[in-house]
Structures are given as C-alpha cells and as structure tokens.
Design a protein that fits this description.
The structure holds 2 protein chains of 2 kinds.
Chain A: E1 2-8, E2 11-20, H1 25-37, E3 42-46, E4 50-53, H2 55-70, E5 74-78, H3 82-90, E6 99-100, H4 103-109
Parallel strand pairs in A: 2-3, 2-4, 3-5, 5-6
Antiparallel strand pairs in A: 1-2
Helix pairs in contact in A: 1-2
Chain B: E1 10-14, E2 31-38, H1 44-55, H2 63-84, E3 92-99, E4 103-109, H3 136-143, E5 146-149, E6 155-161
Antiparallel strand pairs in B: 1-2, 2-3, 3-4, 4-6, 5-6
Helix pairs in contact in B: 1-2, 2-3
Classes of the chains: A alpha/beta, B alpha+beta.
Chain lengths: 110, 163
C-alpha cells in the first residue's frame, strides 16, 4: 500500500497502489500539498492499481480537488475499475470529478 | 479493554457452537470469526484483509463481493474506532463474522454511546455532495444486502452474499 508520483508534461500523476482509506489518506493529502507548494497545478490520481477506497478516501479526494481548484488547478481521476466507478456513481462523485479510463487519457485531456 | 495499541491482533475462529451477540435469524452458522482490535485506524487495512481471508476461506468470491466486504468492514470499523472509541488505541472495538455457506454477516461493536442511524444525512444531495465527510453509512447501506443496528447504536450487522 502506498503512493508513487511521476511528472509528465507538467502534470503530476499520483498512483494509488493498494487502498485509499482512513489510514493513508493524509499521506496522499501531503503529496498533493507538496506539489501545490512547488507550483504544480495539474494532478491525476491514477487508480489503476487501487484495490478499494473507503469514505475517508473519497472525502480526501473531494477536499483535495477543492484545494487544488482554489489555487487555479485541477485534480482528475483515472483508471477506475468497475467497482470503484460504481462507488463514484453511487456517491454522485462522478459528477464532481473529471474521470478518464486511463492515466494517459487523463493527461491528454488537460 | 484488555489490551492496548501494542497488543497483537488476536483472531478467534469457531467452527461450531453458539453465535455470541448475533440476533437469531434462522441461518445456520458454519464458522464464527472474531477479533478484538485496538481503536487505531492504522489497523484497519490489516484487520480487513485478515477477516476477508477467513470469510472467503475455501471459496472464490466474485471481485464485486470481495470489494463489498472490504469496503463494508473498513467503513464500519473506522466508524467504531473514530466515533465509538474516540480513536483511543488503548480502547478496543470488536469485529466478527458469521460465515455460512451462502452468506456472511459482519458485526462491529464498540463501547461508545452509540448513535442514531436515522439521523444521518444523504451525502448525494446537491447541498451535501461536495462535503468531504458523511459517506460512510451511506456506503454501508448501499453495499450490504441488509444492515441492522442494536438499540443503542453501537453495534452494526451487515449481511452480504459469500459468492
């Protein structure tokens, strides 16, 4: 369980490997905040390797999205499998986030 | 409260006998799995995986079922740890599963005052959907086939298929 971060064309890609839950959401928040502090404004949360997300993880994405938007940037989601996509649809978070099938497509969409 | 944060996770598996704490509903339990967990959110993932392994022992659940069980347990456990036990790792919460052939009934109990599940707001409304909190019970109600609480509101039961 953890996060890895890469840069591509001015976009920060944060890969969630494992779960995004109450126990590690602060780590993700810290990574995005560090990026914002360095001037990064475009973020992709890549969930291709994500097992499950709980309500704390969803909440972290919501608050990060707002924080990034307040600084003139955007945080997008990519790589949701069927179960994760269903979670976003169930909670109507699919209406708040730009969701791409893959990280590459998310990159291309900026 | 017989253990603190340094205590190892202890899991009890009972293959027959009584079903402590569960309301009788006519289902025949084949395996009862129970744990006492420190009220520390850093334990959640490990507990979920341990319980999932025992709940699905000898069977191959669908990806959807596996996902549902993990999210349900993570949600209920987190609620009990944070709101029931105040995130105090010297306190504990209890997690159990009654594993029958076709169903799993999960139980999470804390020693807190409980809450009224009927007072929880719908997090999908235009006024609430942008809030970072308030989705836990909503997810539980939508991912479980059946959700029950005791009258005090400090025990939750969640039933889902095992396949």
């Amino acid at each position: 369980m953890g996060f890895s971060k890469t840069q591509n064309d001015g976009v920060a890609i944060l890969k969630v490997e494992g779960q995004l839950i109450v126990g590690n959401r602060q780590e993700l928040k810290g990574l995005v905040q560090e990026g914002l502090d360095r001037g990064e404004r475009k973020f992709v949360i890549d969930c291709t390797q994500t097992g499950y997300i709980d309500s704390s993880g969803l909440g972290a994405l919501v608050s990060l999205s707002r924080k990034v938007r307040e600084q003139g940037g955007e945080l997008r989601i990519a790589g949701l499998n069927d179960d994760l996509r269903a979670l976003f649809e169930l909670t109507k978070l699919d209406t708040l986030f730009h969701i791409s099938p893959t990280a590459d497509e998310a990159l291309a969409s900026f | 409260m017989d253990e603190g944060s340094a205590a190892p996770l202890r899991l009890c598996v009972r293959r027959s006998g009584t079903r402590p704490g569960l309301p009788a509903d006519g289902t025949a339990a084949s395996v009862w799995v129970a744990m006492r967990v420190p009220a520390d959110v850093s334990c959640v993932e490990e507990v979920v995986e341990l319980m999932a392994r025992h709940c699905f022992a000898g069977t191959e659940p669908s990806r959807r079922t596996s996902f549902r069980l993990r999210v349900l347990l993570a949600e209920a456990l987190t609620n009990s740890i944070l709101f029931g036990a105040g995130g105090d790792p010297t306190r504990t919460v209890r997690v159990a599963a009654e594993v029958a052939i076709d169903t799993i009934r999960l139980q999470v109990t804390d020693d807190g005052p409980g809450f009224d599940p009927d007072t929880v707001t719908d997090p999908t409304l235009p006024a609430t959907v942008r809030r970072p909190i308030g989705r836990g019970l909503f997810l539980i109600r939508n991912l479980a086939d059946r959700v029950e609480f005791n009258s005090q509101g400090n025990t939750i039961w969640m039933t889902l298929p095992r396949a």
